[in-house]
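Section handout, structural biology tutorial.
Before the tutorial, make sure you can parse a SMILES string by hand: atoms, branches in parentheses, ring closures as digits. In the record below the ligand is magnesium ion, and the chain has 291 residues. In the tutorial you will relate the predicted structure tokens back to the input. Do not try to memorize them.
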Amino acid sequence: MCNHDSLGVEQGKILFVPRPSIEEKVLKIVTARIVVIANQKGGVGKTTTSINFAASLAILEHMVLLIDLDPQGHSTTGLGFEKPNDQAGAYALLTGTPADVLALNTEIPTLQIIPAGKDLARLEFSDLTDESQLYNLKNALNLIKETYDYIVIDSPPALGAMTLNAFTAADELIVPMPCEFLAMDGLIELVDTLNAVQKQSNSNLQLGGILLTMAEERTNLGSAVANEVRKNFPGKVFKSTIPRNIRLAEAPSHGKPIAFYDLKSKGAQAYIQFTKEWLRRKKNELAKDIL
Ligand SMILES: Nc1ncnc2c1ncn2[C@@H]1O[C@H](COP(=O)(O)OP(=O)(O)O)[C@@H](O)[C@H]1O
Ligand SMILES: [Mg+2]
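Predicted structure of the complex:
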């Protein structure tokens, strides 16, 4: 079920993996890594992860752009912004306005956001899955890839036009998944979509990993679900998990990432730990690529 993105071995056969050129290696270092946070189910922690992963990267002194690609605009309001009109956010980005005009400063100096409002829903049912428009986001981000270290994309609860544009633009997919009964439902469909995108519009896209959210350490069900996911996706589930923590649910109504709302809370600490784990993985992967 898992893909074999980092290995040159498939079903016992050693595959030829072309070595990247010097130009490709340098590009990888100087351009932003684009990470999409996706799961077609709602309420699994996509927005909470997008906001707090982006904020944690920024707090760790990386230049970060968060793009809200969900018409519900929860990343937008969760960082204290009003939902924009169609000239001023993700809708404008996907219809030709340059990203640098749209990116807004946040209270963290190294974090910017392109907000979203409900006008974006018009594009969800438009031609954005057509071959000609599937690359709109990728093309828009190509122009600003050297401005940031990381670009994080929050996506809507559907495998529609927004998510496919994000998958086409991204280097990596992170899947938040609550430690709940039936949580794995839908994961196969998500991995199928990932595989289809890898074949059609973005051979670069990797499954970065699955992040277990809303974990209840003390319940048997929570740990049974976590074990089941780890068994089915070996090596693809982050060691860090995000506990169920009321402070994480409160922070968006104050327009703040959790680290600025309650740094000492378990939720804030968990997102910082997860971000550090992710950064360590990237460092190791890059070291392997460069050697
Ligand atoms: N770890 C957590 N602990 C407690 N509440 C959480 C946690 N993660 C998310 N929530 C809350 O659960 C709801 C759904 O989370 P959200 O991140 O908006 O999911 P999605 O973007 O996938 O729909 C929100 O009200 C959010 O504040
Ligand atoms: Mg959301």
